[in-house]
Amino acid sequence: MKKIHFLFGVHNHQPVGNFEWVLESACEKAYLPFLKALQKHPGVRISLHVSGNLLEWLADKKPEYVEILGKLIENGQVEPMTGGFYEPILPAISDQDKIGQIEKLTKLIEKLFGVTPKGMWLAERVWEPSLAKPIGKAGVEYTLVDDYHFLSTGIAEGELHGYFVTEEDGETLNVFPISKRLRYMIPFHEPEETVRYLSEWKEKIPGEAVIVADDGEKFGVWPGTYELVYEQGWLEKFFSLVESNSEWLLSVPFGEYAAREKPLGRIYLPTASYPEMMEWALPPAAQLACSSFVDRLKKDGHYEQCGGFVHGAFWRNFLVRYPESNRLHKRVLFARERLEELKNHKKVSKDTYESALDWIWRAQVNCPYWHGVFGGLYLPHLRGSAYSNLIAAEGLVAREALDSGLDVSTHVLDINKDGFEEILVETRELSMLIEPEKGGGVFELGWRKHDFNFANCLARRFEAYHERLRAGTGDEEADTGEVRTIHDEIKSKEKGLEKKLFYDWYERGCFLDHFLGKEVALEDFSAARYHEAGDFVNSSYSFSVRGTRDSSLATLTRTGSVETGGEKRRLEVMKRIFVDASHPFVRAEYELLNRSQEALNLRFGIEFNFTFPEDSAGKRIIKISGDRETTFDLQTSGVSAIANGFVIQPSSGHPALELALEIPAGLWRFPVETVSLSESGLERVFQCSSVMPLWEIAIPPGEIWQTELTLRFRNR
Asked: Is residue 100 a contact partner of residue 26, using CB atoms and an 8 Å limit?
């Protein structure tokens, strides 16, 4: 009888910083019931990857899971796979960290289960050719990528019935191709249909292998899958069919197969990920064009033959699409480089180095750096967690040693790797990143006492799926009873979301300088649908920095223009941003110099965008001081006529921010919300609170208007 090997892999992961209830739910709905179902079918043998932070959590909170998994590993039913401990995109971190993270998870698996994994899961299957060398040096024999990686080299789908060998600088690595067809079939098609598909392949490639591996969350966490997989018995039926057809369907883990079967040949794979990821990495207009082109190929019957040559952008393009992602990524790289430098100069102890390194590794988790069908970058708590881990690492080092023993360390260099210099100021209390090329704005305000970045904001941008929302295909859908893969399904979690689609033309930070015409109202400003009278917000400021042992002063200046009375008038804005080592505050002194020959009547605003621990705006209030103190929920928009300042007060136990104004001003406030896609549908996500003091000022020719603001960080 003709036989075929069935290689089945499962990957379980939860982002660092995800909510506890999400982990609890995933374990109860997917991870634990999957293992219990597998226990009942000893003839089904799989390879399983659990990311390091999730495995640690399971060992601590769900010992039953680890106990069952240990027994399955012991009896040979499960082959564990290693990977980057905190699930980083490997090409986005150094080779030293690639190897270190893989070895950390390998050691945890050895400690818990007494076996050394032979293979690894590659996060998001993001492959670059240089990976073979560090992966091999980490002791890994094989990894898995998508069949797309292979198809784009010209290999036909029918030739992908085993593993191939690749190499980099002489270091070899076995690579298995994951079948996209099977990824989409399991568990969304009937079990019998999947087994029939496998049976067809045994006639085409007897003795060879059919390969599938995918997220464990699709077995209970993805919408509708718990009912399908467990309540309707999909998994039990599938496992039973695999066992009942064992005379021809040989269920084998990846490592065992590679140990006894020869490779199909040598291959050099291009930079790639799974097709959906590569499409998401494209700019929105290109996404729509690419999707349309693929649809045309399918309609014309050419996709099977040519689909492998339709190439989206590769993963690193997310760092171009989203400057916020790039900023976080480059800050983590900078912290990692400095930590290594301090260790080499023996300015940090071994214990501090190892602890700080682990915090940095946590900040390398891939989830906050990209966006597709999952929230990822759009989820403030995931971005916030990455920043918190970064700030914790730097704070640990700062408490032991700043550069040259200074209490304040000021760096002027191209941290963002965009061709322009930024200013990073660090004290034992605060970290602050100023970007002169982006309106002289502040895009990081980290308070080490709480390991939190209060300027961790995200601009509202056009996404390709917004077109479907506008077209009405993202409305709430009737329950048809059919479970579809999340790559196919898109629905709204509330009605009228298309009315919430606003797009920012600048990045959201703090100390952003606006000049508004008399006609601009809060409604226009909050929707980013207004005419900016000045040319300061998105423009370059010249700068100088003066750093001492215990303070740092950045002076930023721009001579630009302001439109008033239909004419453009020359205006110079100078702001001095000051911090010292003793107190958690930032003070800004502003001077507006009228360089025109006419008096200027201006509406001048300084915008601040703040985010806070916890992701629910309803738990935070703003207290505005003026003639009398008024209190508002931060979920509301509004204008306060005269204010001396404000305090944003979060829930109990969390830090507060206070802004004191030397000259009273009007105060505008509104919530910044994005409309983004998650696995459960389109939803509004609160990103940050925008608060802007606004002055009505008159400046005679050649005269200066001055004011001062002080931003304080304080406990409740």
From this structure: no
Q: What is the DSSP string of 469-514?
A: HHTTTTSPPP--S----TTT---BSSTTGGGG----SS---EEEEE
Q: How far apart are CA 537 and CA 514, in angstroms?
A: 6
Between CA 609 and CA 581 the distance in angstroms is: 24
Q: What is the share, in percent, of the chain residues with pLDDT greater than 70?
A: 95
Residue 336 token pair: 């990692």
Residues 6 or more apart in contact with residue 537 via CB below 8 angstroms: 439, 506, 512, 513, 514
3 state SS of 50:
strand
Dihedral sign from CA coordinates of 56, 41, 207, 73: positive
CB neighbourhood size of 478 (10 A): 6
**pLDDT-based confidence at residue 608 (cuts at 50, 70, 90):** very high
* 335 three-class SS: helix
For residues 209 and 7, the answer to whether their CB atoms sit within 8 Å is yes
Q: Does the predicted model carry a pTM greater than 0.85?
A: yes
Is 124 known to be catalytic?
Answer: yes
Number of H helices, E strands in the chain: 21, 26
Helices (H), 251-283: 254-260, 275-280
pLDDT at 486 over 60: no
CB atoms within 10 A of CB 666: 18
Q: Over the stretch 532-590, which tens digit does the pLDDT of each residue have?
A: 999 999 999 999 999 888 889 999 999 999 999 889 999 999 999 999 987 889 999 99
Among candidate residues 97, 124, 422, 513, the one labeled active-site is: 124
Residue 264 confidence class, pLDDT cut points 50, 70, 90 = very high
Catalytic site residue from 159, 215, 256, 535: 215
Question: Taking the CB of residue 320, how many other CB atoms lie within 10 A of it?
Answer: 13
pLDDT, tens digit (0-9, with 9 covering 90-100), for 627-636: 677 888 888 8
- Output the DSSP codes for 179-241: PHHHHHHTTTS-HHHHHHHHHHHHHHSTTSEEEEEEEGGGTTTSTTHHIIIIIS-HHHHHHHH
Residue type, 637: S
Q: DSSP letter string over 599-666?
A: -EEEEEEEEEEE--SSS-GGG-EEEEESSS-EEEETTS-EEEEEEEEEEEE-STTS-EEEEEEEEEEE
* pLDDT for position 549: 81
Q: How many residues in total does the chain contain?
A: 716
Q: How many CA atoms lie within 13 A of 390 on its CB side?
A: 31
What tokens does 309 get?
A: 């040559």
Tokens of 454: 């209060």
- Other CB atoms within a 10 A radius of the CB of residue 560 amount to 19
User: What phi and psi values does residue 492 have, to the nearest 5 degrees?
Assistant: -90, 145
Distance CA 183, CA 166 (A): 24
